[in-house]
Amino acid sequence: MEELKYRIYIVLAVMCASGLALTGQLVRWQIIEHDNFVVMAAAEHRDELVIAPRRGEIRDHSGYLLATDIIHYNISVSPKIISDPYSTADRLARLLNLSRDDLVNKLTSTVMWVPIANNVSQSIGETIMKWDIVGLKADVRTKRMYPEGSIAAHLLGFVNDNGFGFYGIEGYYDGMLRGKPGLQKGERSPFGEVIPWGVSYFLPPVSGTTLYLTIERNVQFMIEEELQKAVQLYQARRGSVVVLEPKTGAVLGMANYPNYDPNNYGTSDDRLFADPIVSDQYEPGSVFKIVTLAAGLDANVVVPKTTVYDGGSIEIGGRVIYNWDRQAHGTVDMTTIMAKSLNVGIAQVAVALGKERFYTYIKRFGFGRLTEIDVGSEGPGTLKTPKDATWHESDVGANSFGQGIAVTPIQMANAVAAVANDGLLMKPHLVKRIVDRDREAEVKPVIVRRAVSEQTAHTLTNLLVTALEQSESAALVPGYRVAGKTGTAEIPIPGGYHPTLTVASFVGYLPANNPQVLVLVILDRPSTSRWGNDTASPTFARIAQKLVILLDIPPANN
Question: How big is the CA angle at 503 (ends 498 and 545), to the nearest 5 degrees?
């Protein structure tokens, strides 16, 4: 009997303890944490969706589409709420061209959510949405598409899977192109669908800005085609071409080879992503003689008929400078110095200027600093001046013909464009017009500074024309007067320069008396010939001959 009572007491104690525990939980749920559970319950029936905006388009000067968003869908299913998995599997198999058996397995599984297919076309996604099958979802996604494939890849950049732009225009203008996301809030049913007449809130997304570029699609296509031919013909490692409108600083085309397809950037070598025209620096070689002679003429140190004696070498700051042909040319004037590309002669112009004036002019032409072109990843180049601890007196001589100084292609092209533009240095730019729902704005040309006087620019232009004609340059264009200069730059290596490898280049503009277009051609390490006049100059001529047709530049402008 005592044992029975003992058992009854134990049972009653357990029941009381359980009752107290349950009562405590009820007190916590109903009183102490009531507000928290109300919020949690409400949240179970609320739906909040961030709506991605449509990224702004990128178009060329004439409106031709270069970059846009396309819509695709990701298809998924919640098997537990599919009412007829077999019929649904039949329809999906036919539409998506998938295995019916695999679809049946997915639609009858016990998991909460199963992906069916990603990146299906807009038409297929919209068809699935029209079926209105509870538990079958078609989530809209956007993907950046570049209709021209690899054309203008470096210039445009790309957009990653998270919607962020990198490199080129996509990177530089990412905040403007991306737009502003929208927000949708509402009550949802136990099946996850938004209740149409429930409490809701909707903030529409704002599409990104559309950009119209300065480049011409036909020009861009042509220079890429000619550049690829040149790199292959002259067996160069790589190459670049810049086409500028000297009077405005507008970029009509920028090309590099090799390049990549921004539609498939994930499978490309990431070393190709940065644009060499704005990011990479190189020693320009003899094309830099244009800058040195412009400084000498502007400072009245020399005039075109000024003569100097070229003995084949000259010592400056303890360093002996030689001509490219290791020959002495005797008494020569400025035109001959440019026509024969004489290092000894141009170095004497720099010495006559003096180090302070010489480097002042180099800076006025924009070297050693960013051009601030509106494209991502620009570099400033490398310019040593007398204020730098590493500068040496011999640098005056070496820098005069483009050795010991590093520039970016856009800096070099823009500096020579200043000579073509009556001595005014412009800010290079790629965007011509900005359009969104609230505004449409034209991008106006920006004058950075005057590099040299108008008279100096005209004098130098005529001198360059004569020098090219005297040298019978391969860059000459029939029917047009061309002003320009060839460059063959040795490539620096530890302890000096490579004995055979060079960077060949040519920069020129036409028609000389009313320049409409400037072209810079760079070929890195051509192996058929190390000389710019054999490789870069004829490439310039081929490009220029097509440009005057594409841009309708008549010989009458001469």
Answer: 160
